[in-house]
Amino acid sequence: MKDISAKINKLAQSYKDYTAENLSKLVNIRSLSTGEQAMAAELKRQMEEAGFDGVRIDGLGNVIGRIGNGKKILAFDGHIDTVDIGNIGNWTQDPFSGEIRDGFVHGRGTVDQKGGPAAFVTAGRILKELAFHGDLTIYFTGTVMEEDCDGLCWKYLVEEEKIVPDFVIITEPTNLNIYRGHRGRMEIEVTFRGVSAHGSAPERGKNAIYMASRVCLEIEKLNERLPKDEFLGKGSVAISEFVSGSPSLCAVADYAKIHLDRRLTWGETKESAVAEILEIVKDMDASVNVLQYEETAYTGLRYGMEKYYPTWKIAEDNPLVTAACKSYTGLFDKKPLVDKWTFSTNGVTINGYFKIPCIGFGPGNEVLAHAANEKVAVSDLVAASAFYAALAYHLS
After folding, report:
1. Could you confirm whether 17 is annotated as catalytic?
2. Whole-angstrom distance, CA of residue 172 vs CA of residue 62
3. What is the pLDDT of residues 168-183, one digit of tens each?
4. Are residues 80 and 208 in the same domain?
5. 146 catalytic, yes or no?
6. What is the rounded CA–CA span in Å between residue 24 and residue 100?
7. Cβ contacts of 209-213, under 8 Å, gap ≥ 24
8. CATH at 137
9. Which long-range contacts (CB under 8 A, 24 or more apart) does 366-370 make?
10. Which whole number is the average pLDDT over 11-38?
11. 303 within some domain
12. Domain count, the chain
């Protein structure tokens, strides 16, 4: 592998400008969730230009590139939607400029997460140039709607497209480290039903705001006692929205609702998280529900899933992690840091639901995800494109 690693490194470096310019073109395109059509078309064009054996767009709008036709299936995944730009005043340049300057590509999505797809397009080009003929089918998936509902795209790929890989590499930003898991998450809504009365005589009613407020304080306490995993860290719960209603501003509130962002560590489940909240509201007229996501993709297909995204991790001695570490060391002549994400990825479905072995390796630092002045180092793009190509050789 030493000889092939040297060739891969040399090609990745020679394609430095090609990779950066491809990413710049992707950043030029605004691609919020459900609005990825132009972005998908450009990524498809780049895959075709790189010489992929096949490229198509599925019913949900995912771009699926393919190289090879072997028995085992390897997939490189990168989502092509982004969050919006937020307050434009916080940006020092056009968020969609894709400017290449000072060794970085600048703009929304450079880190989260168009840099990964730009790097895997180059990896595909490297594999074609080296006449890769390992016994693998390699898919390169530019997936949609991840920012709105992580994992929904892979639910579609597995259940509708029948693509079930043996290994998946998630190209979300890892600062060029190898990640092997992250906490799960879920969205819970708690609704409180009160009884309205005139504001001049509140004792005649039952104030839903008071009920919800007491529960909020108990949830704050719950957060402090949630369990901790040695690798993934502690579970958490945060109240992210409080809404109330009444017949008028001169009336007791008869309705309140809170939204919970629940992060699940190892051993926590949807059932255990819901049970904790049910225990807190057991003496109140309240309901606890896990929310459902359902939206129309840019293709016109309406699709959805429950907003429960399971915790996942794979062992450090898993063959996929071992192969990734060997690929990394062979390329860069040093040992990688094996770690985890703070945020959530498509791994919640790939491994959390379908138990497909997956790891993460991507260009960029996750602290810049969703931030103003997002940027990724061109050197990260080069390293990622080399790593993806080298790992294909290791796994074949």
Report:
1. no
2. 16
3. 999 999 999 999 999 9
4. no
5. yes
6. 7
7. 209/244, 209/253, 209/256, 211/256, 211/284, 211/285, 211/286, 212/242, 212/244, 212/256, 212/257, 212/258
8. 3.40.630.10
9. 366/111, 366/112, 366/172, 366/173, 366/174, 366/175, 366/341, 366/342, 368/110, 368/111, 368/112, 368/173, 369/111, 369/112, 369/113, 369/173, 369/343, 370/83, 370/112
10. 98
11. no
12. 2
Q: Which of 220, 179, 181 is nearest to 325 (CA)?
A: 179
220 and 72 within one domain:
no
Kindly state the tokens that stand for 314.
């794979």
Q: What are 120-154's pLDDT values in tens digits?
A: 999 999 999 999 999 999 999 999 999 999 999 99
Q: What share of the chain is helix, strand, coil (3-state, %, to 5)?
A: 35, 25, 40
Choice among 81, 254, 268, 366 that is catalytic:
81
d(CA 76, CA 141): 6
pTM here is 0.95
The residues near 382 (Cβ < 8 Å, ≥ 6 apart) are 12, 13, 15, 16, 19
Task: List the catalytic residue out of 42, 112, 146, 374.
Answer: 146
